[in-house]
Specification:
The protein contains 13 helices and 20 strands. By secondary structure, it is an alpha/beta fold. Strands 11-10-20-18-17-16-15-12-13-14 form a ten-stranded mixed beta sheet. A hairpin with a 2-residue loop joins β3 and β4. The longest helix is centred in the middle third of the chain and has 19 residues. The radius of gyration is 44 Å and the shape is elongated.
Length: about 450
């Protein structure tokens, strides 16, 4: 009785430490209670040994996947369906291949053979001319056989030799053939370019930015600057700058409007220096930043107070230090009145400045005239700023720099002066002056800002 199962394809599950096996039964020993499998797979991996013997005591489950491969089914029309083994494809386990083969046999009816079956014609069909459908089926069958009929056991054991196959490709001959089809002038240009060798940090194509002059001033300063887009921005003299601001005020761009625009630009820069959305986040309250604004009693000081008020509207903790509370301009008085409504701290002595490190210092202590620099309070405030070691953002500082304070960034309006390196990295702010303002002072002006409100300036060393 046991010999009738010889040739069956089965799946056997053994104890946990032995795993599962699939293969074809080649012997069943009833006396020894053993089953011998050939073409065996263990846990989906083909085994190198020709046969595996499993004891009945180790088997926990046995399932028949397929009957013997030599089983044939005859029909009344002399058509015999001979089952062809399904080849194992890449990425597909042996058990999946065997189950799919069995499933396809169960789904197909005897009257409709599958595509993998071979139709043996009877005597009446010998002299019949194959139809177009038969020829198409034959071609598809041949393609499937060529693609999936090759065993992959030997292929998996062989390593692909990349160097050997690469040596078969003569790249130079292909390049010569391509070059022979191109015009002589193009071929000579490529040859001359290949003859020149470049370092790892050099570009093949020249990367010198184009220089454009959209701003021309009647009396340029000692320096020139260039934007990221290659636009040349000349520096202007202090007298021409004073005329420019005066004409703007006369035409309606008042000092209050200028302070609001400068304060807005300084606020945007400060928010980015503080960390932007990563730091100013409602879920990050325990690391909320602190900004100190050091302000003098002049136009720059009013801009500093304005910036502190706008930072407070973003939830930033701000402290305003007023250098000289006894002498204040009208604009500074208005800005301080608005700042008091923010409920942030306003101090007038150096001793009240924070003793711990702050996140940013907005510097507006000195104006272009250098007033109030002789005061001892100024020297104490400058010393505190240097000891705090926080980044310093100066608002419209003097061209020579703010005395006694190491500045990292400086924001200047409209057109820059010939600033020294003590002012750090320069940024230019757009105050939205009408074209008539520049025309009245003799400046040929075309806006260099493009889509931005603040642009960086670089020294023009060319």
């Amino acid at each position: 009785m046991a010999d009738q199962f010889v040739g069956y394809t089965v799946s056997i599950t053994c104890r946990n430490d032995l795993g599962s096996y699939q293969g074809q039964i080649c012997n069943v020993d009833q006396k020894e209670q053993t089953i011998t499998l050939k073409k065996a797979f263990k846990n989906g991996v083909p085994q190198q040994i020709p046969q595996i013997v499993l004891g009945g005591a180790d088997i926990t489950n046995l399932a028949i996947i397929d009957t013997a491969p030599d089983t044939v089914t005859a029909s009344s029309s002399s058509t015999v369906a001979v089952t062809r083994p399904v080849a194992k494809r890449a990425g597909r386990s042996v058990s999946e291949s065997l189950v799919s083969s069995k499933g396809s046999q169960l789904r197909d009816s005897p009257r409709k053979p599958t595509e993998d079956s071979i139709r043996i014609p009877n005597v009446c069909d010998v002299n019949r001319t194959p139809s177009k459908k038969d020829r198409l089926r034959q071609r598809l069958s041949e393609k499937d056989e060529a693609c999936f009929g090759t065993p992959i056991d030997n292929i998996l054991d062989q390593d692909f030799d990349f160097e050997k196959n690469l040596a078969l490709f003569n790249k130079q001959a292909v390049y010569d053939e391509i070059n022979a089809q191109r015009p002589d002038i193009v071929r000579h240009a490529d040859a001359s370019r290949r003859s020149q060798k470049y370092r790892h940090d050099e570009n093949v194509i020249a990367s010198t930015p184009a220089m454009y002059r959209q701003v021309v001033v009647p009396a340029p300063g000692l320096k020139e600057y260039v934007t990221d887009d290659g636009l040349v921005i000349p520096s202007i003299m202090p007298d021409l700058r004073h005329q420019l601001l005066s004409v703007a005020e006369r035409l309606g761009v008042t000092e209050e409007r200028q302070a609001e625009l400068m304060g807005r630009a300084a606020t945007e820069m400060a928010l980015q220096l503080l960390g932007g959305g990563h730091r100013l986040n409602p879920h990050n309250v325990h690391q909320w930043p602190t900004v100190v604004a050091l302000c003098g009693s002049h136009r720059q000081g009013a801009i500093g107070v304005n910036c502190a008020r706008q930072l407070a509207s973003h939830g930033v903790k701000t402290v305003v230090f007023l250098l000289d509370p006894t002498h204040m301009t009208v604009q500074l008085t208005h800005e301080l009145a608005l700042f008091r409504y923010t409920n942030n701290k306003l101090i007038t002595t150096v001793q009240e400045l924070p003793t711990v490190a702050v996140d940013l210092i907005v510097l507006a202590l000195a104006d272009e005239l250098g007033s109030q620099l002789h005061q001892a309070r100024y020297r104490a405030a400058a010393e505190w700023a240097n000891e705090n070691r926080a980044p310093v953002l100066a608002l419209d500082p003097p061209a020579a720099g703010t005395p006694g304070v190491d500045t990292k960034f400086s924001l200047v309006p409209v057109l820059p002066l010939a600033h020294s390196l003590d002012n750090g990295k320069l940024y230019l702010c757009n105050l939205a002056f009408p074209q008539q303002v520049f025309k009245e002072v003799g400046i040929k002006y075309s806006s260099p800002f493009g889509p931005k409100f603040v642009i960086p300036l670089h020294p023009n060393d060319t």
